[in-house]
# Entry
Amino acid sequence: MASSFDWLGLLKGEITLVLTVAAGLAFGKLLLALSVPERVMRLLLPEGRRTSRTQPDILFALALSLGSSRAGAAIVAEARREGRVTDREAVFGTLMQAFPGYLKRFVVTFPTALGLAGLAGAVFSLVVLLRSFVRFVFFLFLVRRPAGDEAVREATGACDDGVAEMPRGGRLPLLRTLSLTLPLACTVYALAYLLTPSIQRLFEERGAWFPLLSSAGWTVAAASFAHANAALSVAGGAIAAGTLTTAQGVLALLVGNMLAALSRVLRQDLAFWLGIFPGRMVRSLFFWNYFTLVALMLASIAIAAVPVVMGC
# Structure
């Protein structure tokens, strides 16, 4: 068992995590030191900045997240460390970064899903996009501070024109920050990577309890642990062979996507957040991220199960 484990993949993942955390925090420190978010928002919203209830740092991070959601999250983390945004704004502002990043990837993933699994792949891809958008709107509602809320304005150090000041007292040197956060982040990533094969085998062995998935459907769901494209390929083959209908293929893809979510959140999100946020913040991030994700996943599975039950 140990000899077949992908230790090289684990090493590459750890190196990538360290590099992205270090580069993200360094980039965030540089941009905030140069007051780039305020300068950009003044150019884009010369009048609206006085009435906007969303911090300019968060708005700027959203724009950055079109290129990299991790870069956007690092901007929010550094802004929070300098006292420019509150913990609440940092939590929901960070969780908002997922949608712009997914929107960019959708341009590539949608044609791929359509090509690999046909209509089932297209529907699956659109459902995932819709779920991401719903979460974005929800977190946007939570992150926007109430107009005239003096307590929030005082906590964020906002000026009269709605642009936050930049307190310096809470800053930590980059190397000091990394020394405090990276060990735990790397440990969590390693544990998630090591446990993923066991979690996959557990679901494969216990998968029969979900009566709406046939053996072919469960094969599709299990393939989601490897990669979404792997599950799409298996689904496309099963639909072409007639062992799954389109509706069953969509349901299998959504079930697999949900089952693989915990491993994905632990490796891709939680480990990175531990590198840039304190532990108490990470607990809030994990709770709001994972449970809103699961709630929407369960809702989408319930809807997708209707045509399967009806025999469509």
About this structure: The first helix runs from residue 7 to 33. The CA atoms of residues 107 and 125 lie 10 Å apart. Residues 48-52, 147-170 have pLDDT under 50 and may be disordered. The two ends are 42 Å apart (CA to CA).
